[in-house]
Specification:
about 350 residues, alpha/beta, Rossmann fold, six-stranded parallel beta sheet, about 15% strand
C-alpha cells in the first residue's frame, strides 16, 4: 500500500459536518502516522479545530466571501496543487468543491460518486450509501480505497489549551454549588428551533429545582435568548446569560464542562457530544435516521413519530404543513423528565 506524506481533507459544509469528519481524520493518522494532514473547513469555524492532534493545520475557505465565485475556486485549486499534496479527500459534494479538487491536479483524489460531476473531478469515487449508513460511516467510505476498513474511530474533539483554560476560569469564578445545565435555543434553520416558550419553561424548572442554567447563543441569536429569559420564571440568581459573549472555541470548552446540555439539532450539539457531555437533542424537521445525530450513551434524541417527517435534510424556513407538530409535541414535561435524570435531581 502506498504511503503519503501530505494529505488534504476537504469538508467545507457546516460546523457539524466538519465535527463529524473527526473519525476520518483519526483513521488517516493511524494509517499514515508520518503524514501531514491538513483540514480545510468553512471559513469561520476553523478556530475550534486548532487543538486537534491529528492535523498539522486547519485552513479556512471563504465560500461566502472572497473565494465565492467559481473562477476564484479554480484559481484556489491551482494554488493548492503547487503545495505538494499527494492525496486529496473531499467529503463535500458541491460543484465548487469538485472544481477545486479537480483543479489541484493532485495525483490521487478521492470523492463521492454523486453528483455526476464528481466523477470528472476525482481520480476515484465511492458510493456514499446515504440510505444505508450513518454520516460518520458514510465519511469512512472515502478511505476504504486506502485500505482503511473496520469500525470508525471514536469522534473526539480536542480543544486548544487557551479555550480550556477560559472555561476552567469561568467555572472557578462562578463556583457552582449545583449541577449546570446549558441550553442553546438557536439554530441556522428556523424549523429546527424548539418553541421559545418551551425553553423558557425548562429554564424556570431547572433554576428552581436545583440546577444553574447557562444560556448560550451565537451571533444573531441573542434576541432569541433574550425572549427565552424574558418569559422564564424561577430563580434568576441561578441563570447566567452568555448569549453572544463567547468565541467558538470558548463555547465548545464551556459545553465540554456542562453536566447536561439541551440543544436543537445544530452545530454546537456536535461540539458537545464529541466531548462526552450528556445531552438532550430536539429533532423536529430532521430525524435521527438521516444519520447526523449525537452518539454515545449520554446522548438522547427526542422526536415525534409523524408521517411528514423528515421534511428536508436541514429543515425549511417554515413548516410545510403549517402545524409544527414535530416540535410542539415534544413537550417541556417530556424533556424535563430526561434532563432531570441526567442532572441527578
Amino acid at each position: 500500500m502506498q504511503e503519503y506524506k501530505k494529505i488534504a481533507v476537504w469538508q467545507t459544509a457546516f460546523l457539524g459536518d466538519a465535527v463529524l469528519t473527526l473519525p476520518l481524520l483519526r483513521a488517516l493518522k493511524d494509517r499514515f502516522p508520518g503524514a501531514e494532514i491538513h483540514f480545510f473547513v468553512r471559513g469561520g469555524v476553523e478556530s475550534v479545530f486548532r487543538g486537534q492532534p491529528e492535523i498539522v493545520s486547519v485552513r479556512p475557505f471563504a465560500k461566502r466571501g472572497a473565494q465565492k465565485s467559481l473562477n476564484a475556486a479554480v484559481r484556489f485549486g491551482w494554488e493548492l496543487g503547487r503545495e505538494g499534496f499527494d492525496l486529496w479527500i473531499s467529503a463535500h459534494t458541491s460543484l465548487r468543491s469538485a472544481l477545486i479538487g479537480g483543479a489541484t491536479g493532485i495525483k490521487r483524489r478521492i470523492g463521492y460518486n454523486r453528483p455526476w460531476f464528481n466523477r470528472l473531478a476525482y481520480t476515484e469515487t465511492v458510493d456514499r450509501r446515504f440510505s444505508e449508513l450513518e454520516e460518520i460511516e458514510r465519511l469512512m467510505e472515502l478511505v476504504r480505497p486506502l485500505g482503511i476498513d473496520g469500525p470508525a474511530p471514536e469522534a473526539r474533539l480536542v480543544l486548544s489549551q487557551e479555550a480550556r483554560e477560559a472555561a476552567d476560569w469561568f467555572w472557578r469564578t462562578k463556583n457552582f454549588d449545583r449541577p449546570v445545565l446549558g441550553i442553546h435555543p438557536g439554530s441556522t434553520w428556523p424549523t429546527k428551533c424548539w418553541p421559545v416558550e418551551y425553553f423558557s419553561e425548562i429554564v424556570s424548572r431547572a433554576s428552581s429545582e436545583g440546577a444553574h442554567v447557562l444560556v448560550f447563543a451565537g451571533p444573531g441569536e441573542e434576541a432569541v435568548a433574550a425572549r427565552v429569559l424574558a418569559e422564564a420564571q424561577g430563580d434568576i440568581r441561578n441563570v447566567t446569560n452568555l448569549a453572544g459573549q463567547l468565541r467558538l472555541p470558548e463555547l465548545a470548552a464551556y459545553l465540554g464542562k456542562l453536566d447536561c446540555y439541551l440543544t436543537n439539532d445544530s452545530g454546537p450539539m456536535h461540539l458537545a457530544w464529541t466531548q462526552g457531555t450528556p445531552l438532550v437533542a430536539l429533532f423536529g424537521p430532521t430525524v435521527r435516521s438521516l444519520g447526523f445525530f449525537p452518539r454515545g450513551e449520554n446522548a438522547t434524541v427526542m422526536e415525534t413519530d409523524l408521517d411528514c417527517r423528515p421534511c428536508g435534510l436541514h429543515g425549511p424556513k417554515v413548516c410545510p404543513k403549517g402545524h409544527f407538530r414535530c416540535m410542539k409535541e415534544v413537550t417541556p414535561d417530556l424533556v424535563w423528565g430526561e434532563l432531570k435524570a441526567k442532572l441527578g435531581l
